[in-house]
């Protein structure tokens, strides 16, 4: 799938292997899909997609016919502000009522991403191929430590801040050597591992982002500690709600939204040793700059830089990870989705720095090149995040695997370029992880 719209049609090109093609090539399909403001939503409309993270509403699916006024009200009460409807499957907005100007929205999203396209950081000190094996061991140790930390929290014990600092330091060293290694591996967690590995991933993301924002080393470590402990409140959530595979009831959704306050309360027991930044991020990582977040509905200037960082890192890892109720999105797709939500949700400066720290096409992203070859992103380029190193392994023209070959798209003599992101779920590539990591089962 390519582009930003959630409207896709099956390709008739046999070389596409039945993939979805960008709906912008189909006028008929485009006319059936319409983006509207949440206040225009009514029963009888077919909801195609919600313009926001699935964490922001109590629905386990986003494509269904709205028949219940209670569901409409639940959406209006959420932070979702825009949705896509399919007028071929449900009613349309009344004549004369304007829908959202999608051309302007696309231009804004494209500009937001392009502003971060040129990398400003130094080259990674250690090749990703060397750092991956160390990162696997760090992830395993970190998962064990965080699991124990959550277990202690459930029993009412205070956080072992000394142990947490050792873990943050180890993660920091890996991020400093090559941030892509640990960040990419942490994304591969299973649904069962999510609660614990999410803390590890956000810790690493926070430190990589902190360095991109030119924070000093002490501040970077504070950001890492905050990321590691930001979701501790989930230790107090009922497991049947935390791991529920289907739609949450309004009451269950309210319970889950209490986790920042619960976590803050638990961390107060060790406030002196963990620091104010960790307490702040734990309590406010779900706040949004437009005031629609929780628990305190803080607006832009009332939200600290660290809490704004936590909001970006938390959402990215959540939407790219497999959950009990939903498969994770592709990393590159997630970056574009987050750019769509940026107005009102994320601080623009923080979001652009986040994209720089991770890449527009993060390591592990499946991409299609102008040459017709498919490849997996291996490393970022120093000059442009639009031109990473890619391992080519498949030809869409011959519809066959080819001998793997790594090319650096940033080199002057390279005449190929990324044409689109591809959805791995639409291709039968069981060895995709092994292609970029060199390991068939990183956590096996």
UniProtKB/TrEMBL annotation:
Q: Return the EC number.
A: 3.1.4.52
Q: Which top EC class is named for this enzyme in its record? A: hydrolase
Keyword annotations for this protein?
Hydrolase
HD domain mapped to chain residues = 195-319
In the UniProt record, does the keyword NADP occur? no
Q: What is this protein called?
A: Cyclic di-GMP phosphodiesterase response regulator RpfG
Q: Which InterPro entries match?
A: DUF3391 (IPR021812), HD/PDEase_dom (IPR003607), HD_domain (IPR006674), HD_GYP_dom (IPR037522)
Give the lineage: Bacteria, Pseudomonadati, Pseudomonadota, Gammaproteobacteria, Chromatiales
Q: Which SMART domains match?
A: HDc
Write down a Pfam family by its short name: DUF3391
GO MF, one example: cyclic-guanylate-specific phosphodiesterase activity
* Domain named HD-GYP: residues: 171-370
Which SUPFAM superfamilies does the entry mention?
A: HD-domain/PDEase-like
Determine if Hydrolase is one of this entry's keywords: yes
